What does this fold into?
Amino acid sequence: MTEPALPIAVTMGEPAGIGGELVLKCWLNREMGKVRPFFAVDSPARLKAVAGHLGIDIPIRKIQSPSQSASIFATELPVMPIELPASVNPGAPNPANADAVIESITTAVAAAQNGEASAVVTTPLHKASLIRSDFPHPGHTEFLGALAHVSDPVMMLVSGDFRVVPVTIHLALREAIDALTTDSIIHTCRITHKALSADFGIRHPRIMVAALNPHAGEDELLGHEEQRIIRPAVIRLQQDGLDIHGPVAADSLFHADARATYDAAICMYHDQALIPLKTTDFSGGVNVTLGLPFVRTSPDHGTAFDIAGKGIADESSMVAALTLASQISDRRNQSAAPHFLRMLKSSERLQPDSLPALRDVIARHKLSARRGLGQNFLLDLNLTRRIVRAAGELDGYDVVEIGPGPGGLTRALLESKARRVIAVERDERCVEALTGLAQVYPDRLTVLRKDALDVHFPELVSGPAKIIANLPYNIATALLLHWIPDIRRLDGMILMFQKEVAERLVALPGTKAYGRLTVLLQWLASVERLFDVPPTAFVPPPKVTSSIVAITPRSEPAAPADRELLERVTAAAFGQRRKMLRSSLRMLNVDTMTLLERSGTLPTARPEELDVTEFCALARSLGVLESSS
It folds into this structure.
């Protein structure tokens, strides 16, 4: 029996615009079978007020989980509540509500990334209100790209079979022209080509590229961009096998006969794409964001403040956005998982480009994250590739990965030139889920079902080695302490920690975060916090921000010391960090004042005031005193 499709997450948008009215009218369309179940991420009080103002009788039910939507959608509008701090007046945007608007988007995206929603449909934003509240993104597309860690998402506008894609998006025209490059055109075309095939079911996509200048530059009499920027991109893509042509003068590209010759038109700037589409279909156009790991659509219109609250907003574009989101989601689900199952059942070896989406792997193996194992899965391949790049050259290296989960970081490691990847995984479900990867890389991937704390990593590697891992949060510190004695056997580590732990690893003396772990690690390695990773990057999202840390073993320790003695000194000192050292070090069972005097340490000092070399001096002095007693 086929499982019911997941609901769609619909965002609040600008509270003073027509978004609320559209959501209510779309729910009324359910009886005509026009929309699949969705839930609104919105203020229930606002929606009730909109319904009352418009004279629409719609029962609203607060939900705590998207999974509740399907069972109540037929009789009630499911709403995941977002509270608005300020009152809402139709047509009058209030920047005080900006944080709630942003929260609605991040909540909907998290639902999609967690596999709780099939797609995200956004209602229109008022960008000026958000920007006044220090919102750093020029529009929805860029913000969604940031949430998904996709640096250059692509915007497509759709009306039936008419599809247009601007290379530059929310830029002033002069800035858009300056931003146009051959590489940006190639990137846009490749993302579009992939989406036409995967999301729209077009087996052999045809792409036409618009010129920038009148008459396509008229042999450079009216501009150089066609010959110097656009044509080189088209030629390179043709060499790669794409059915693509141009640059074609934009004034002859959008009439009906021309549109029949291509599946998507690539335009050079925002209005070059949107004017022909909105002229053709002002009410039914849909905005689709390409290149994201989840499906996102939106109606192709703005907040319409001039008609907000009047009950005359046309929901056609919103219904079309919901419908297209459903179609794309269904197509992705139908094409990925069954193909993977067929490949697993056959004797044919999977190829790297045949691997299923990570979400399909999670669904097939029922990989709900287990809190007891500290699991938070990384699915964004752009982010995992960034982590791998941070490790530097991997050619010829053995790489140990801890807790690979469904294999997001593992895939990125195998894409590199690493000689071998040894993945240590305790969860038998995840070990089974890595079967497909093992088939693709039988000589380079070894999966060990073990507890990482029971593994002595020098026994796993032969030759240069690094550890690169999204560490399970519940044992991350214990793992690091476990590895410190053998750290100089490694060429480096790139590790994911909770931000609070990462701050302890890089802390300086005199700071609150400086502690025993800091001293023991910095004694043998240099440590750098590279970048932070927001909760939305994970499935499920944790409650804290994470950080990527680079640990590079020193050729020699920061100062001479016996490791066991250093561990004892730091344990005594930081075990009672509020006390002066003359008190906290008494537990070492030597004459404390003599110990402090021999090491040149002030008796009134507290542990966070000493640097690594001073702790090493204490350890050496402790060794001398114990050997002479």
Notes: Residues 204 and 397 are 40 Å apart (CA to CA). Confidence is low (pLDDT under 50) at residues 336-350.
